[in-house]
Structures are given as C-alpha cells and as structure tokens.
Design goal:
The chain has four helices and three strands; from the N terminus they run βαβαααβ. The chain is an alpha/beta fold. It is globular.
Length: 82
C-alpha cells in the first residue's frame, strides 16, 4: 500500500519556495498548489496587485471552495506540495 506524503511550505516573499516547488513538480504523482488562497485574499482584502483583476477572474475566489478543492485533490496524489 502506498502511503501519501503531504508537504506544506509557507515561506516569506523572495525566498526559494518557487525553486523547491518546481523541483517537486518534476516527481511523478506530485501535485503543486501555488498560492491557492491568493485570489480569495485579493478579492476580500482589496490589495492593489498589478494583475489583481486577471487573477480574480481566472481563479476561484471563495475560501471554502478552494479549501474543499484542496481536500479533494489531496487523496489523488502521492506527494502534494503547497
């Protein structure tokens, strides 16, 4: 029986998190979530991001829906990096 490994990494801006995520992305059966809660944050907090509107239009903006999607995806992959 294969045991899933869930890895969560929270880092500060301008760190090596993107490098680490791209490394994990090369593994078979690995799923990457890159800032899955950023669109809901932009929508609810009004942060002035240069691509704010495009992000809001292209991503799920409801926190509960994003979390539900994360839970559903967790059990389909061997390694998850978020």
């Amino acid at each position: 029986m294969t045991r899933n490994q869930h890895i969560a990494l929270w880092t500060c801006p301008r760190s090596r998190s993107t490098l680490i995520a791209r490394s994990f992305e090369q593994l078979d059966g690995c799923l990457i979530f890159d800032e899955p809660l950023y669109a809901p944050y932009l929508l609810t907090h009004g942060f002035d991001h240069p691509h704010r509107q495009a992000i809001i239009e292209s991503c799920e903006t409801n926190y509960e829906n994003v979390i539900q999607q994360l839970y559903e995806e967790l059990y389909q992959y061997r390694v998850i990096f978020s």
